[in-house]
Specification:
This protein is of the alpha/beta class. It has 6 helices and 5 strands; from the N terminus they run βαβαβαβααβα. It has a single domain, classed as Rossmann fold (3-Layer(aba) Sandwich).
Length: 162
């Protein structure tokens, strides 16, 4: 069995990230591992000549505070269910910050949501998960949100469970 002692679960607070967190919680419990919840506050792209305007700084501070509140509540719930957990909130580009946290915190496994974008949306927006998989020095598990049963039944297929 693999020795995953510290699991990182980055979140953007989407339902996709919630699915990854559920998987990370299950793994942490089964492997008796620590779980680190991470949120990256991505910078606003604002053209400025002389530094950051106050509105951008206030946005980053407010976004960081909201993320800490959400993650702290998630950690309380995880601990109540017997999972050792803690949080990190950092600022920067998500894929770069995830890899830096992996290195700094000695993470053994990253459990990361994938939004499943394809085509033009993927080309324009890129994929944080794809960049993390390519550059991360540890194992990365990607979790795709399963289709709702109605959509699968309507299409005549079974819903896939990641």
């Amino acid at each position: 069995m693999f020795d995953y002692r510290i699991i990182l679960c980055p979140t953007d607070f989407s339902e996709h990230s919630d699915a990854a967190l559920a998987r990370a919680e299950d793994l942490a419990r089964r492997l008796d591992a620590d779980l680190v919840l991470l949120h990256v506050v991505e910078p606003l792209l604002v053209p400025v000549e002389y530094g950051l305007p106050p509105a951008v700084i206030e946005y980053e501070d407010a976004a960081s505070a909201r993320a800490r509140d959400y993650l702290d509540a998630a950690v309380v719930a995880l601990k109540a269910r017997g999972v050792r957990a803690r949080t990190l909130v950092v600022a920067g580009t998500a894929s770069e910050q995830i890899v830096q946290v992996v290195q700094r915190e000695r993470i053994d496994l990253v459990v990361l949501a994938t939004h499943g974008r394809t085509g033009l949306r993927h080309a324009l927006l890129g994929s944080t998960a794809e960049r993390v998989v390519r550059t991360c020095p540890c194992a990365v598990m990607t979790v795709k949100l399963a289709e709702p049963a109605r959509s699968a039944a309507k299409a005549g297929t079974k819903s896939a469970v990641s």
